[in-house]
Task: structure prediction
Amino acid sequence: MSDNTKDNNSVNNSDYAASDASSRKYSSQVVDGVEHAPSRAMLRAVGFGDADFKKPQIGIASTWSMVTPCNMHINKLAEEVNRGVDAANGKGVIYGTITVSDGISMGTEGMKYSLVSREVIADSIEAVSGCMGHDAIIAIGGCDKNMPGCLMGMARLNRPSLFIYGGTIQPGKNHTDIISVFEAVGGHANGRVSDIELKNIEETAIPGAGSCGGMYTANTMASAIEALGMSLPNSSAQDAISNEKIDDCLRAGEAIMNLLRHDIKPSDIMTRKAFENSIKVVIALGGSTNAVLHLLAMAHTVGVELTLDDFTRLGANTPLLADLRPSGRFLMSELIKIGGIQPLMKMMLDRGMLHGDCMTVTGKTLAENLKEVQPYPVGQEIIQSFDKPIKKDSHLVILRGNLAPQGAVAKLTGKEGLEFTGTARVFNSEEESLRGILDGTVVAGDVLVIRYEGPKGAPGMREMLSPTSAIMGKGLGKTVALITDGRFSGGSHGFVVGHITPEAIEGGPIAIVQNGDKITIDAQTHEVKLQLSDADIKARLAAWKKPAPRYTKGVLAKYAKTVSSASEGAVTDKYL
Result:
């Protein structure tokens, strides 16, 4: 008689005992013994057989949905992961978590849910795998917030875990991508892009599945996670639809079983040194400002102390090397063709810039993973040499000053200049600012101030991609600056400063800026300054009245009540 047809009346405690109990620390509590016959009965209905109850259960968290091309293929990747787990003698259990689309909701009230979704994803992975007794977790993400959300959920449970990136999209017609569409909107408002041209870009820029194609937030976070050691080598640099991505999913099965055998957990991998590696790789790649927010949140979740000052310290000696969009020329799909980020990491390791002794999900150290990596092909133009960097230090500039006493984050590659002084043009929402840009209210020499868009104030800290793209599209990229207590898409570029803290709703100085005030942003002195005396600022703050909350019920209201500041990662469990 086979295991699957065994008479259940003869079950005793030994029938479902693990051959390797240490690898079934959690699932054994759910399925072992006579008392858990009801649990087994329900699991049989979803495909378990007798042999499966003796295997480690691997939760496979899938962010599949049809709300965005970034995640539309992830159900198929999850099935490949499941096959890999089964082949390695584990039992995969696929379950879903949410995703939202920044690109689709950008510039609307709906975008307020974007950063909130990171916390919902972390909560859901913790809840499902914690409840169901999964011994290990593999999470697959393909868009901005679901990637750090997956890492945070896995870190909370601290069970053997690894992350798989869903992969990048192919370029659109004429080397276009989603940012091309946003900037075409500004060009249309300026009369430089016709109705027909705008329609053509709209129809051809997004050819299929995969994450936005530049070094925007999705590819930034995929690279950051690989450098952190939490995904297999090259997972960040594979096309969404490719044999390489299928292989990445299949290899995850053996990798997760190896992590289980050696009890290697996220806390063993996501160390202080590993975060330093991740930050340096993000800088070298010219990554998104959102990496600051997400790495702070991930570090908090796993119990590693990380602050804005660490980005300044590490950035002082880390050059920007990658000529990637949004400020550069190339797309992620082109970096993939020359080897992805592994040769870059090998270059950095050989110069002593990375900690080679950090453990990774391969069960080997970073240095061991990189040992056989070949250099980039001669003549490639995407990754510059250390002798001729695009910028000798970090493009992620942490600013302070009387406008941001607790910090702000700028993304300055040097192409925008290093100092800007202009006249404040104040807006109390993103929508107001976009109208002001498109109707000509905003002019050269202005510093746009967009406030009440912080984590608590929006609530949800929307990305200002529509305003920054409109500025670029209208040809104002070199003559207009923008500061906000909101944040930016990885696709934003120009003279922009976000994450200003304290935010306006908390009575930060950004709340009392008035039209016509002079503002200076200086990347060399790391300062963002309102040219008013301390006495004038104090008097304005004393007269300021806090606005009523925009939401009083539901997830946005709960988020506003619990979220920490952007300078602390905008997490919701900081002060519990």
